[in-house]
Amino acid sequence: MNASLLLVDLQNDFLNSPGLEPPLEGLVSKAAALAAGCRSKKIPVIHVRTTISRDCDRRLPHWKKSGRWKCVAGTAGHESPPPLQPLRNERTIDKSGFNGFAGGKLETVLKELKCDTILIAGLHLHTCVRSIAMESLERGLQVFIAEDAVGSDDPILAAGTRRWLAERCVSLLSSNEILRRIDGHKTSSFVHRSPRDVSKVLFEVRNANIEEISSAALAAQDAWSAWRGTKPAVRCRILAKAARQMEMLAPKFARQMAIEIGKPCSHGLEETRRAAASIRDVIRRAAAFDFSTRETAGLVRHEPRGVVALISPWNNPVAIPAGKIAPALVYGNNVVWKPAPAATAISRALLKVFHKAGVPEAVLQIITGDHETAQRLAADKNINAVTITSSARAGYAIQEICARRFLPLQAELSGNNAAIVWDDADLPRAAAQVAWGAFGFAGQRCTANRRAIVSAAGYKKFLGELKIAAVKLKWSDPLEPSADIGPVIHTTKRDEHMALIENARISGATHHSEFLFNHIAAQSWIKKGAYARPAIVCCDDPRSTIVQEETMSPLLVVQRAENFDAALELCNGVRHGLAAALFSRSRKLQQDFLARAQAGILKINSATAGVDVSLPFNGWKMSGCGPPEHGEGDRLFYTRMQAVYGYF
Q: Could you tell me if 335 and 220 are in contact, meaning their C-beta atoms sit under 8 angstroms apart?
């Protein structure tokens, strides 16, 4: 392999575009790391950039139409951030449109370098990156795109572009995997290491191929009529047996979660018992539900959708899939389940519980693999609906596939949750709740308290109470019964956590940051695992990345608000809208909060973390799409209404 890296349009005017996904800081960091890795391997780095001149206007038509001037030579917007600026010996290729090959200079340079492989990072995936990738394929070059180092201001179009390019033999891999390929390492499986001791490999997960995915979906479709024909009471009895078995196995599941994903045992026990309670709530509702009702003009029937693709995360590997499997089955659907790779072993153990309870194997199946496996499953012709809990990026990809196929979609896509703490609140109790919600399970819950918005009058006192409450939690090996905070899922997440805090400090966005448990951080067991240091960061800039982005790590951002209107503006001022909380004794403030907070889950005087299985679970804005999970939401997604005329 004789490779060259193309850094495409990583210029300030493009990087500062509104709606860029992923956000600027993460994109720049990943692209800079890829460039550094390539330079260390003596791989040429070529900078392809848009250069516009006011003296010779060669702007694209849509720029002219909108009066847009970007990347004008000699301006700050034309330049790249310092980590991405060309080194003295690196080539630059200027273009005025989408095609980096226009003018012939790039092709000449690649021929001089005897290049047979192109690596691409940059902007925008759906336009310039796509154009360069396709032009490279036409020239017989092998193409790799660093999918964690490319961005777009149109995420849905970018998701379609990813799928389209992959179908045309473009390899979309992480930056780290691309560097491994260059070194001659090619893996078709996911290697999962212990979060407690990253030197230990726990298991490997193979990506199911397209034939295996199709076979599983077809088997589920073939078995659907028989399962659909069973009486609801029979399905309820089978699920009740699964719930009983789950409760009996709760200590075993909790230990497995502690070992494989780093979840403290107390959290694992609670999760498994909540999963059993969720199944029982599903049974209760289904037993009382009229699948067919008569109106004056005819019948209204609630029919199952068919075969449901279930895509589940690693952080709640029992409760989340159980909360989807139970309603899918009880309402007469079959399921093909693709768990997150790190949760594969736990998922197989949970699958056995359902099969042992009486669910036929073809009715509930598992296929293993990564995000590409999930996308191929959603795209299979025998899938009739998709339910997913994952990240926004995964949500965009699945949403694009479902839109193309007119499939019903239920998506829970994480949260950046705020708790407003007002000065009339019980501050010690509020601090204890927020600390538990922020740092428990190392912040790896979609409902975790990411932000605390505090009245300026009570800010200092709350901060003091928060530190007292936080250090009462126990940061330790998750196998210890008293552990509250364990490791994060892997070292990459740990490093991202530390980099985010450091970048916010360097940028001046924060006025105070503090790591907790300093006396523990240097201990040997901490250094062996993926332990991210719990931190409190005070940041009043609502535009800062550390405020705007969900971290899934033990990080709490504290913001000051001069008045309650400002507090609500901060609470709502992020893309996500999963959960929000208010700590206040004032009935007036509570009513104002309930009227104006933009989230699917609202809480009064309790942490954003934690939910009851009997209430709907859904996010607003970027946190969700489709009907909610749990409660009344289940039948809205897992059944479809049908009107029948003339049958009496």
A: yes
